[in-house]
Amino acid sequence: MSSRRPKLILVYEPENACFERLVADGHVPGRAAEIASYLAQSTDIAPEFDALAAACQTRGLSFAPVALDDAANLLAGEDPKTTLVWTLTDGIAYFRGGAAPALARLNGLKLLGADDALFALCQDKFRSGAVLGALGLPVPQSGLARDGRWLAEPPASPAGWFVKPNRLGAKIGIWPDSRSRDLGHALELSRRVFAAYRDDVVVQPYVAGRNARASFLGLKPDTGVEALGIVFVESGSDFQTMEDSLALYGDTGEAARAAGTYAEPVLLPVAASQPRA
Q: What is the C-alpha separation between 102 and 116, in angstroms, rounded?
């Protein structure tokens, strides 16, 4: 049995490192900043590293945050019997956090969260929807467009369509007119997204209703739905935009605070909003 102290390694991709890489790859700085804002969780969690280390200390663990670019060398020297890898950021297209689970597996290290195959699949909305549909799960039918042409045509929709980038999150590439009343406008949005981010768009039937967010953290193998947290997100409109997201987190959130435009949506637990029987 290993005598080394158990260690939790947090692997994160820094927002600024992503920005610099995107600019070097030819992205306009303004658009690169929007894309990199997806990694604001890394910027926001850095001031909490000391608190995380203290929490680990009380539980007999050592804690080591490591930037993604340094992870390969660090993980190669860790003991598989005593090391747990926590990947904070994902990504296979614009972001590279999906490499961390693969690096953990390469070195035989245990991983907190999804494995590398899921990290790669779930970064692509169209492909993940196709896989889930093939497994018999209910998913919205989607069209796929690239720079003004259909790769897969969307289904008919009397309520119109919603258009969003295929491989980006955090509301990046979602604008006030992302709800489209006609497919010609949907294709125009695909041109705009491709010009700005070099990405395809998924085009799905628009569904009216309240914006909801679901989170699940299962700490034990038998964890059930009691660990599922669902909240309504009230932001003053029927969907949030990239501007809403940029005003909340990381470097762009700090800029919004300085400009006086910072505004958080109201989170209302779904259970608390239901009428009693």
A: 5
Q: Is 224 exposed, middle or buried (0-12, 13-18, 19+ CB in 10 A)?
A: exposed
Q: Give residue-wise pLDDT tens across range 56-110.
A: 999 999 999 999 999 999 999 899 999 999 998 888 889 999 899 999 999 999 9
Structure tokens at 119: 């990290």
Say what angle helices 29-36 and 183-197 make with each other, to 10 degrees: 100
Residues 13, 17, 22, 24, CA torsion sign = negative
Going by pLDDT thresholds of 50, 70 and 90, the confidence category of residue 1 is very low
Looking at every residue in the chain, the average pLDDT score rounds to: 87
Name the H helices within 78-122. 99-106, 116-122
pLDDT of residue 277: 46
Query: What are the angstrom distances between the C-alpha of 256 and each of 39, 81, 214, 265, 269?
Result: 16, 45, 26, 14, 26
Q: How far apart are CA 187 and CA 173, in angstroms?
A: 14
Q: What is the percent of the chain with per-residue pLDDT over 90, rounded to a whole number? A: 61
Q: What is the C-alpha to C-alpha distance for residues 125 and 145, in angstroms, rounded to an integer? A: 13
What are the phi and psi torsion angles at 132 (to 5°)? -65, -40
Q: Give this prediction's pTM.
A: 0.80
For residue 228, report the phi and psi dihedrals to the nearest 5 degrees. -85, 125
Report how far residue 202's alpha carbon sits from residue 182's, in angstroms, rounded to the nearest whole number: 14
Domain definitions of the chain by residue range: 7-122, 139-205, 212-273
How many angstroms separate the CA atoms of 186 and 161, rounded? 8
The vertex-187 CA angle with 185 and 190, nearest 5°, equals 115
Distance from C-alpha of 50 to C-alpha of 165, rounded to nearest angstrom? 36
Cα(37)–Cα(51) distance, integer angstroms: 24
